Amino acid sequence: MEPATTRHLRPDEIAQIGAICDAVGNDPHRMLDILLSVQDECRWIAPDAMQLIADRTGLSRIAVEGVASFYAFLSQTPKGRVTIRLCDDIIDRFAGMPQVVAAFETALGIKVGETTPDGAISLDYTACIGMCDQAPAAMVNDVVLTKLTPDRGAEIVAALQAGQRPEDLISDHFANLTPHDRATRQVENNIRHAGAVLLGPGSDRAGLENALTMTPDQIIGQIEASGLRGCGGAGFPTGRKWRIAANAEADRRIIICNADEGEPGTFKDRVLLTERPHLLIEGMTIAARAVGAREGILYLRGEYVYLRALIEETLEDRRNRGLLGQGIQGQDGFDFDIRLQMGAGAYICGEEGALISSCEGLPGEPKTRPPFPAVQGYLGLPTVVNNVETFCNAARVLDQGAQWFFDMGTEQSHGTKLFSVSGDCLNPGIYELPYGLSVRDLLVMAGAEDAAAVAVGGASGTMIARDQFDRRFGFDDLSTGGAVVVFNGQRNILEIVEYYMSFFVHESCGYCTPCRVGNVFLQKAIGKFRQGLANPEDIDYLKDLSGTIIETSRCGLGTTSPNPILSTLENFPLVYAAMVKPSQDRIRASFDIQSAIDSARHLAKRRSTIFDEDFSK
């Protein structure tokens, strides 16, 4: 029998791939859609498939392979008919994932990274899937399973081996459930506190109806007057971004919703997508009215594929009600529609330039700035990129008025904020609260009075200790995209930091050397501290290398990846001091440069011109 990795496509597979390409007009900008569909149908992206796709889309084979090799959910080796992806973030580990992994491996008779001999089931790790409030969690094809235990893992394997489909693990009548019921059967919302703006009662069209009575300039003026800032963490003024796009010289403009919240510990947008999808689409439509856009893209992270049917239903419902599509609400010339773009497992695509590249059918690599997306983004067109929470806020501002929103929060941070609280607490979940809340007050609400450390903003944010719990959330103090991860006194700070650094090493797009190689060096150095092999000079080394990575990296991943180290060095100095040994002649103990860059060589798929002596041979 011909090996699976070298076999040629069957005639039916050739026809199937051709139909997939035809469905998107053989458009190379829809490459990610094509490859995801091929992966779903064929369970891998075969060499012959890449050549066929290249021929159909007018690209080179290497261009197609560049996309296929970039995303974690695409495979160039055959996968099982069912792929189990076990979430391997630090919260899942602390919640018992190692024991769950062992149960899956025992039941399947394979290790993580392998496929059963009959080709039925593959077992893999994946990064944070946005279920930190109900860990341990996993994806089984397009189905999400939460609160796993070893016994439940064995039951899942037995059911799959007995012929059940992944969706049968949720309900025997899965197909008869509404898309919303399917979503909530899989994942709990865990809304612990609903605030006045986003999670309380409200209309799904009032903001749009008000916007239709205003000029585009007046709409933007309302957003500016509200003080609304981007809710993904950077906090750029939303109205200013919209005005830049509106004023850019162009005949065509684009609205993109960034629903790719991949930051470990963040899951707020997941809840909005489930409970407020109409509010999101309304916000995007208002933005289109404000800047003169006719086209929108909703980029949904691959880990949230279980929400795809719900979002598609919402889009179709709004089209049928005249709230989306041609001549919205009977207004000639106001045409705007949205297509859903699925991601494929790449944290870097949460960065707006990388997200735009992904929408264009390219590897998710950040773009050089300037020009900024509002001037020259998707396909070189003026593009507004905001996240789910921001668009939902914008719809509420147009519904209730700018002053209503402005009066909530603080002088620099207006409105409410969705906090995703997880980790060592009694009440993990979503809390919508006004800006200005103290960390301590949120911890009390979440039942985390014994917290010893809190990661504000997730892996790329700030780790604070007990003596800083009176600091307040907001752009004037502790800014965050939403993640609040709680660790009690039994957790090893350096273990957490090492995990975060391994996450950044894995998720780097590999484009620029400081991020690609520097983070490997940082991870290795933290490993030295954990092993008790560090000396005092290693602390300076961590600070110096972190500064270099921040100053010279191309995008936000590299400029924030050293944060776990820098913030813990500042706020938990005794943790590092306790692991340091005196040095002899200022020589760093057991540091092997060749070992340190092995991971970087593997990621970059090339050797080093500096450290490989035989490079020129």
TrEMBL record:
Domain NADH-ubiquinone oxidoreductase 51kDa subunit iron-sulphur binding per the UniProt entry, residue ranges: 494-539
Keyword 4Fe-4S appears in the UniProt entry: yes
Enzyme class: oxidoreductase
Top-rank taxon, per record: Bacteria
E.C. numbers: 1.12.1.2
Gene3D superfamilies: 3.10.20.600, Glutaredoxin (3.40.30.10), NADH-quinone oxidoreductase subunit E (1.10.10.1590), NADH-ubiquinone oxidoreductase 51kDa subunit (3.40.50.11540), NADH-ubiquinone oxidoreductase 51kDa subunit, iron-sulphur binding domain (1.20.1440.230)
SMART domains linked to this entry: NADH_4Fe-4S
Molecular function as annotated in GO: 4 iron, 4 sulfur cluster binding; DNA binding; FMN binding; hydrogen dehydrogenase activity; metal ion binding; NADH dehydrogenase (ubiquinone) activity
Entry cofactors: FMN; [4Fe-4S] cluster
Protein family according to the UniProt entry: Belongs to the complex I 51 kDa subunit family.
Protein's recorded name: NAD-reducing hydrogenase HoxS subunit alpha
Organism: Thalassovita gelatinovora (Thalassobius gelatinovorus)
